[in-house]
Amino acid sequence: MKIRILAALLVMGMSAPLFAAAADAPQSSAAEMTDRLRAIGQWMQRVTDAMAGSNEAALAFFRAVEEFSSGDAAKAREKIPALRAAADNWSEALAASETRLDRIEPLGEGAGQIPAAQFNRVLTDARALVAEMRRQAADTQRLADAFDRGDEKTVREIAPMLIRGGFLQLRQQVTIYRARQAIFSPSQSNHQMASVTIGMYQAMSVAAESWFAAAILKQNGAAAAQGAQFEELADQLEHEVQTGRRNLEREKATLASARASARNAPTRELADAVEPMAKLVGNAFTIGEDLVGWLRSRAQTSQASLAEQRQPQLLSELSAFEQRYVTLVAAAAATLGQAGR
Question: Which of 30, 93, 216, 251 is most exposed, with the fewest beta carbons within 10 Å of its own?
């Protein structure tokens, strides 16, 4: 899912710079840009398809981890076979994803004035993410082996970190998306759209780590720290969304002007191809606005409420925002795939 979101950010980010260029482009140039847009969409689809199997297996794995970590310790041994099976399945799926990713050649420069470098980073990040997840699957096998031989010391060391390992990946995603945000100028709406993605993963990271501190480590003050971070994040995200909507309105006006002054059919077709992206960016800002409201509401969560949760409830709630984003990305991929047809 993370790779799909990253791909969509990059693809949608290319639409705004093309608007102005399309207006005065000769017919051959406009046709090249349309073809380039379609080629990028097809290449991105290969990357996301390569990750699909391991993403599905990851969901099953983390459900097994949640089941393993719930309940009393005496029953944990009974859950080891299911955890081991989920880790085995995930490891196999990751190996398949790794093979498919290795077979994908970097995107060539081609024509159409759309550079390939930032898109090729998606492939690099996908490969790195698979490698990291394979390490986590291996740690799970170490845990299962430790249970089998009665090595309580190793179990105590690995078990909490197994839970926290998935949380630390959220923090890594914040770093990745911040780096990608630099691709877009602050004057582009996609810069602020990236802020929505960053804010979402920041909130998930804060929620996960705060729950771990309160419910697992029994640290006082975890809820207060979470509330302060949620409030700060809400203020930052609200500002970014407001700025993004202003930028988006300017870009939509540029698109309308480009279509009106288009000298040829390919230029008009290019404008038609990228126009739906503006709507999708607007929908991303709606998700951001809803997230701001959620953050301010959940900032009031008490220490007792947080500490008594057997699972990170706020993280589960935030997963619904991520799913909305994934749905949005799927629409972006479908739109891009139709470009130039």
Answer: 216
- Average pLDDT value for residue range 20-33: 53
Contacts of 181 (CB under 8 A, 6+ apart): 191, 194, 195, 198
**Token digits of residue 228:** 């302060």
Q: How many residues are given for the chain?
A: 341
- CA gap 75, 73 in Å, rounded: 5
Span 184-207, mean pLDDT?
A: 89
Contacts of 108 (CB under 8 A, 6+ apart): 116
Interatomic CA distance for residues 26 and 11, integer angstroms: 23
Closest C-alpha to 144, from 60, 57, 61? 61
Q: Which sign, positive or negative, has the C-alpha torsion 93, 98, 99, 105?
A: positive
Confidence of residue 219 (pLDDT cuts 50, 70, 90): very high
- The predicted-structure confidence for 77-120, as pLDDT tens digits, reads as follows 788 888 889 989 999 999 999 999 999 998 877 645 556 776 78
